Amino acid sequence: MINSKTNLRELAYVVLIDEIKPLPGYDKVEYARTQGWWCIVPKGQFKVGDPAVYFEIDSRVPADKECFAFLEKRNYKVKTLKMCKVLSQGLLMHASDFGWKACRAMGPPFDEPACIIDDKNHCHYIDSESRFLTKELGVTYADDEDNVRKAPSADKYKKMTQRRPNIFKKPWARWMMKHEWGRKLMFMFFGKKKDKATGFPTHFPFVHKSDEERVENMPFILKDKEPWVKTLKIDGTSSTYILEKKGKHKFEEYVCSRNVRQLTPSQKNYHTDIEGNVYWMMADKYKIFDFLKSYLIENNLDYVCLQGETAGPSLQGNPHKFKEICFFGYNFIRSDTGRMNSIEAAKICNAAGIPWVPIADEAYILPDDMETLKLDADGPCLVGEGPREGWVYRSLDGQRSFKNVSRQYLLKH
């Protein structure tokens, strides 16, 4: 689930049990659903309406907590599994597994919403920021590589304080760092050029880290019968290119991975098997900044942004078997109107020689049930080889989007 406050993916959080079904032929377990996720749980552990802690697929729980000992044989990883003749996606655990207390919503009028109370007597309510337990429970990505690739980059102030811990432990320094003017002043005296911020830029109103919400976390969207643009989801590395107008003839280029600004073509990045910086390589290969500059000037914009997926050899295992590293755009953002309609953006980028993710349907209507939508995600990839990772759906105005990842793809990869 995407945390709307931090725009980062959360791996553990409080949910409600929405439905429970028996599993014919299995007496000790049953099938429980929270939103669009189905998980196998011990029989009788939950009732519909109970709060629970849900751990997303692709996560890993800490090995040093006794409550997770049952996952030792799976290396403490939570994945998509086929068990008891059904697919189980994620892990549902009861509050009592952690020595905590579960409080159901009793009512109506439901004045006290369902929550989980931890051992510090903190209440974790369903629809609040307190529901997220990723850090509290020590949950990380199952893939060690993802923990490096998706980790937030430290900003320049954090780097400065880490370099001079003796100074920044002092009360006066801590007080200074609480204020924006104080941080700037401290950086004048104690900062260095190498402390320059390498995090994803945050001063562009319409530009955000590209990570779509999974449809399983938003089943309500199936009631939206407006047409959607259905595009192929490609498994690679997120790449962002921004050109900002700084003066009459001055521009600043931003090259970014998911979380890190790649300051120079020689900057070391996560993909060490590739000679050079893969994000700058794509900028040069497709002349992205020439295109962005031309478009910015022609439309008199303050900035323009192109986001997409870079895929190919040495990237994510190259599941689509591309012969060379390539880029596919999926977001085109203007400073005045935000994200553009995907159909129009594809035409503009393709005309400039920049590939766009394949569009499978320009007016797709969502089905009434989740299972039909999930089955539609399975199938062959439209580019490269092998099965597709799934679909990404974008509204015609370009402002809303979500992803539908193939369960068959997850079982394989």
Describe this structure in words.
The protein has 413 residues and is of the alpha+beta class. It has 3 domains: 2-142, Nucleic acid-binding proteins (OB fold (Dihydrolipoamide Acetyltransferase, E2P)); 156-195, no CATH class; 215-412, D-amino Acid Aminotransferase, Chain A, domain 1, CATH 3.30.470.30. 19% of the residues lie in helices and 27% in strands. It is built from 10 helices and 25 strands. The protein has helices at 144-149, 156-163, 165-168, 171-176, 180-190, 278-285, 288-299, 342-351, 370-377, 407-412; strands spanning 2-3, 8-9, 12-16, 19-22, 29-34, 37-42, 51-55, 59-60, 77-78, 80-83, 86-89, 91-93, 101-103, 115-117, 123-125, 140-141, 228-232, 237-245, 251-256, 303-311, 326-334, 338-339, 359-364, 390-395, 401-405. It has a 5-stranded antiparallel sheet with strand order 19-18-20-21-22. A hairpin with a 6-residue loop joins β4 (19-22) and β5 (29-34). It is globular. The two termini are 20 Å apart. The mean pLDDT is 91.
